[in-house]
C-alpha cells in the first residue's frame, strides 16, 4: 500500500502553488500599470508624466476620452523634472508650483451628486511645502474666499512637513470639505504624518 502524505503536506503544497501563481499574476500586472488602472474603468485617467516639456493638453485615457481632456496652465514656462512614482519606469512626474495648474473641464460624469460616493486616486511627492502660497495638489474648486459662491467642494493639501516646523497647524496631508461661505461649515481630516 503506497504511503499517503500527511494532510499538512498536501495543504502546504497547494498553498505554495497558489502563492507562486499569485506572484506570477502580480508581477505581470505590475509590468503595465496603465493597463491595470484602465481595467477598473475610470472616467478620467491622466498620466501627467512630462519630462522637462509640457504640452497645453493632458490627454484623458479614461472612458470619457477627449471630453475629459485637461488643460495645462503654465504661465512661468518653468517645468522641473522629478522621478515618477513607479520604480524602474522611465516616465517623469509633473511639477506644479503656486502659479501652475492643470484644469479639467466641468463634466457631469466627473461631478456626481452629493448623494453618490466617488473615488480619486493620485500619487503626490512634495518637493517643497510652499505653505505661504497655499499648495493644493488636487481639489474640485477654484474659488477664493471673496468669490461667489465662496468656498464649496473639497481640497487636499499638505500642512506642516514636520513637527518642528514653525506654525500652529498640524503635521501632514489634510483633506478639507466645505459646505458654506468662507471658513464656515468645513470638515478637516489631517494625516498627522508628513
Structure overview:
- The protein is of the alpha+beta class.
- It folds into two domains: about 30-125, no CATH class; about 130-194, no CATH class.
- Helices cover about 15% and strands about 20% of the residues.
- The chain has helices at about 5-30, 35-40, and strands at about 55-60, 70-75, 80-85, 90-95, 100-105, 140, 150-160, 175-180, 185-190.
- It has a four-stranded antiparallel sheet, with no helix packed on it. It has a three-stranded antiparallel sheet with strand order 1-2-5, with no helix packed on it.
- The longest helix is centred in the N-terminal third of the chain and has 25 residues, at about 5-30.
- It is globular, with a radius of gyration of 22 Å.
- Residues about 5-10 and about 15-30 have low confidence and may be disordered.
SSE order and pairing:
Elements: H1 7-31, H2 33-39, E1 57-58, E2 70-73, E3 82-83, E4 92-93, E5 101-103, E6 138-139, E7 152-158, E8 173-179, E9 186-190
Antiparallel strand pairs: 1-2, 2-5, 3-4, 6-7, 7-8, 8-9
Amino acid at each position: 500500500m503506497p504511503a499517503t502524505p500527511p494532510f499538512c503536506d498536501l495543504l502546504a503544497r497547494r498553498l505554495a502553488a497558489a502563492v507562486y501563481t499569485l506572484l506570477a499574476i502580480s508581477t505581470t500586472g505590475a509590468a503595465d500599470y496603465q493597463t491595470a488602472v484602465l481595467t477598473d474603468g475610470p472616467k478620467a485617467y491622466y498620466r501627467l508624466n512630462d519630462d522637462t516639456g509640457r504640452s497645453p493638453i493632458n490627454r484623458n485615457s479614461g472612458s470619457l476620452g477627449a471630453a475629459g481632456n485637461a488643460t495645462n496652465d503654465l504661465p512661468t514656462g518653468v517645468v522641473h523634472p522629478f522621478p515618477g512614482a513607479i520604480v524602474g519606469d522611465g516616465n517623469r512626474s509633473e511639477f506644479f508650483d503656486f502659479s501652475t495648474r492643470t484644469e479639467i473641464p466641468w463634466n457631469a460624469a466627473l461631478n456626481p451628486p452629493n448623494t453618490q460616493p466617488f473615488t480619486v486616486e493620485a500619487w503626490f511627492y512634495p518637493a517643497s511645502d510652499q505653505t505661504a502660497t497655499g499648495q493644493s495638489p488636487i481639489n474640485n474648486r477654484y474659488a477664493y474666499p471673496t468669490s461667489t459662491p465662496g468656498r464649496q467642494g473639497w481640497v487636499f493639501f499638505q500642512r506642516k512637513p514636520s513637527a518642528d516646523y514653525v506654525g500652529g497647524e498640524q503635521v501632514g496631508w489634510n483633506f478639507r470639505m466645505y459646505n458654506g461661505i468662507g471658513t464656515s461649515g468645513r470638515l478637516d481630516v489631517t494625516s498627522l504624518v508628513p
